[in-house]
Amino acid sequence: MINDVKWIQARRHAKNWQQAIDIAAHPLILFGAAQPQYLDGIIENTLSWGPYYLIAPGVALPHARPEQGANHNQITVTTLSTPVEFGHEDCDPVWLLLCVSAIDANEHIKIIQKISQLIDSPEILITLREAQTDEDLYSLIANSLTAN
To answer: Does the annotation mark 88 as catalytic?
Structure first.
């Protein structure tokens, strides 16, 4: 699913959670995995229900419902140069965003399983956070997913 560096963004700068989501979702929209309104769906859902997609300290899994503009299954990985606050007591501030486009619930579960491989290891998280370039981050993720 993360089969190309185009889905990876290392050390991006965001002023707030909205901009962080915009940055994280950009490749999904740019490369056709989601429609432009998918980003609006994530932001609208967050404003309605809070940051329901913060899954661990420093880690966000922003996503919207398939009918909000998902075209096919894809994950983008974005690290932030400076973490941002999402308003979640246990998980703020966020530095890693794994933005997901999934077309159905079964696929969503498969994507979550893949992501859990990445965030399950403190050592992997440290190396992901330290990656300076998109290419370095892609290499680390590709190696981590194939090792598990």
So the answer is: no
pTM of the shown model: 0.94
Task: Indicate the domain borders of the chain.
Answer: 5-147
What CATH code would you report for 5-147? 3.40.930.10
CA distances from 45 to 40, 56, 73, 140 (A): 8, 19, 19, 31
pLDDT digits (tens, 9 = 90+) for 71-129: 999 999 999 999 999 999 999 999 999 999 999 877 777 777 877 877 888 899 999 99
Q: What is the pLDDT of residue 120?
A: 86
Give the C-alpha distances (Å, rounded to integers) separating 31 from 6, 42, 55, 73.
8, 18, 26, 12
Q: Minimal CA–CA distance to 129: which of 100, 97, 99? A: 97
Closest by Cα among 101, 110, 103, 114 to 141: 114
Whether omega for the bond prior to residue 93 falls within 30 degrees of 0, making it cis, is yes
The values of phi and psi at residue 10, to 5°, are -100, 140
Mean pLDDT on 60-78? 95
Candidates 13, 63, 72, 108; catalytic one: 63
